[in-house]
């Protein structure tokens, strides 16, 4: 038993009291870890910025509070890609794309001069043109509809 190694001078009832204290939150796990460190007892896990329960229950995308069965929380799924490359297989959001700065004649703008004519979103992998996915088309239509409604309100 690991607790017997950490606390060789305590009997079974005292060790059980420590376990009960951890379970009900009155005894801090940090104290056990510090005592193990002081007693040169090695604990074979790396504790990062999360608690044991999160690590045991499936990693950092799932959190669980001790004693509360209804406290499961999972991260939301990433949004559907709104843009895709015309040449390679890249798909993603607009903010993940690369922005090219263009001069009036369509040539790529040099970065030492701050005056450019237009911008163009390109694939971050191969600098090819992007097109909207079905999800992107729906979002674009929704945005256009909102803009038209705002324009109608302002007139």
Please give a structural write-up.
The chain is α+β, with helices and mostly antiparallel strands. The chain has 2 domains: 2-68, no CATH class; 83-154, no CATH class. It is built from 5 helices and 7 strands. The chain has helices spanning 2-6, 12-24, 29-38, 52-56, 134-154; strands at 62-63, 73-74, 83-85, 91-92, 98-102, 118-122, 130-132. The strands form 3 sheets. It has a 3-stranded antiparallel β-sheet. A two-stranded antiparallel ribbon has the order 1-2. A hairpin with a 5-residue loop joins strand 3 (83-85) and strand 4. The mean pLDDT is 82.
List the helices and strands and how they pair.
Layout: H1 2-6, H2 12-24, H3 29-38, H4 52-56, E1 62-63, E2 73-74, E3 83-85, E4 91-92, E5 98-102, E6 118-122, E7 130-132, H5 134-154
Antiparallel strand pairs: 1-2, 3-4, 3-7, 5-6
Q: What is the chain-wise order of helices and strands?
A: HHHHEEEEEEEH
Secondary-structure content class = alpha+beta
Radius of gyration, CA atoms, in whole angstroms: 28 Å
Number of domains: 2
| Low-pLDDT stretches | none
First-to-last CA distance: 77 Å
Q: How many E-type strands?
A: 7
Biggest sheet details? 3 strands, antiparallel
Give the overall pLDDT as a whole number. Answer: 82
Q: Which outline best applies?
A: elongated
Helicity level? 25-40%
Query: What is the subunit arrangement here?
Result: single chain
Strand order, biggest sheet? 4-3-7
Number of helices: 5
Residues in β-strands, percent = 5-15%
């Amino acid at each position: 038993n690991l607790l017997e190694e950490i606390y060789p001078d305590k009997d079974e009832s005292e060790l059980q009291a420590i376990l009960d204290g951890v379970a009900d939150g009155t005894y801090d796990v940090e104290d056990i870890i510090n005592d193990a460190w002081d007693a040169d007892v090695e604990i074979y896990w790396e504790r990062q910025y999360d608690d044991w329960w999160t690590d045991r229950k499936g990693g950092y995308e799932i959190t669980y509070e001790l004693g509360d069965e209804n406290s499961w929380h999972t991260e939301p799924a990433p949004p559907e890609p709104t843009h895709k490359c015309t040449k390679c297989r890249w798909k993603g959001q607009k903010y993940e794309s690369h922005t090219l700065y263009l001069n009036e004649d369509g040539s790529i703008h040099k970065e030492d001069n701050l005056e450019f004519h237009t911008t163009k979103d390109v694939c971050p992998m191969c600098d090819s043109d992007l097109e909207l996915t079905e999800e992107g088309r729906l979002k674009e239509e929704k945005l256009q509809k909102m803009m038209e409604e705002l324009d109608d309100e302002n007139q």
